[in-house]
Amino acid sequence: QVQLVESGGGLVQPGGSLRLSCAASGSIFAINAMVWYREAPGAQRELVASITGGGSTYYANAVKGRFTISRVSANNTLYLKMNNLKPEDTAVYYCKLNSGWGQYERDYWGQGTQVTVSS
What we know:
The chain has 119 residues and is mainly β. The chain has no helices and eleven strands.
């Protein structure tokens, strides 16, 4: 069983910064990718940024140049550094871990952490 625990959310003023963390634990094999999603009230969950097991990154256009995704392989911790935050970044942020292959491929999700950008 794999557990993901997010932390680091909170209330921040526009233009501020936050760093989210996602600690993965349990029986983890062959990580394909770790991904940050967010879900704003009344909106669908959207992909924010991802990083593959090989270190390749992807960012949604809305956050490109402001957010940085990174991962510490030694302890399977995923980070999202968010700079120049805007009110439209307000959402619950979730991390997802994709591991395995073929019939053994699995997605694991964290419980989410609230980010609120407001003055």
